[in-house]
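[Meeting: bench + compute handoff]

Bench side (C.D.) handed over the final construct sequence. Compute side (W.E.) agreed to return the predicted structure before the next meeting so the bench team could plan truncations. Sequence as handed over:
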Amino acid sequence: MPARDRLLALLVVVLWGCNFLAIHATLGQFPPVFAGGLRFAVIAIPTILFVPWPKVKIRHLLGYGLGFGTGQFAFLFIAMDTGMPTGLASLVLQASAPFTVLLGAVFLRERVSGRQLAGILLAVAGMATIAWQQAGNAALLPVILTLLGALSWAFGNLSTRKAAPESPLNFVLWMSVVPPLPMFALSLVMEGPAEIGHSLSTLGTPTGLIGLGGLAYVVVFGTIVGSGIWTSLMRRNPAGVVAPFSLLVPVVGLSVAFLVLDERPSPVEIIAAAVVIGGVLFGSTKRRAREPDFLAEAETPQPTGVR
């Protein structure tokens, strides 16, 4: 993975780590599923009017929109609204990295080298330690919902790899057309018109303005900028190389939650976060000599689509 791509991956890490604080602010004003639909609707309308079609197969766009967009953020927003701490959410969601590597090996037949596997296992061990330390702060249901969001993200990553869009940014923007309708429909059923109407009628209050600011950050930096760069990286590099960088997001998320929300990590969690960084760096650096593959590619031609 080139040094330039590593720096871009780290930029996405910072943007997505701060994204959880913005989501926290957004959920202070809007009900969770409606907030998710609103986030994508703000992007979808100008996309349809002004952005060229990304020239990808419909099934890959739908897969990315339903996985990365609808599934991930519906589960994540509901989890955070039902008690998932901001820092812990940023951590558990990064289970998408090992999910992506596993799914990439199974469905895309991507190679997983010994170095990559060792780095991922080291990073996951650090992540699991942090999760164990903070498990007492969250009920089981929010944790499960966040893990389902991570799995949805992983499936979205596979669709990105298969789509291989010529314009990653256009692909990300058009992905935003998929989530609004199913999320708004789900919001009407789960949250009701009264709660939705109240969130819209109180936008002029201090809480409403903070919520709008959080929504603006999520749309511009979390979705357009962050996801656009991420999609470009997934197109140029194997999923198993790019995905482990997402394990660094909870380091930023936990730090921001500590500084702004006073969610204080323990010394064990700080050490574990350093283990996560070490694992990602070890797994993503180029190996000097050829290593045996744990999951070798089949000798048959590569599949043309995810089934």
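W.E. noted at the follow-up: The first strand starts at residue 112 and ends at 113. C.D. will use this when planning the next construct.
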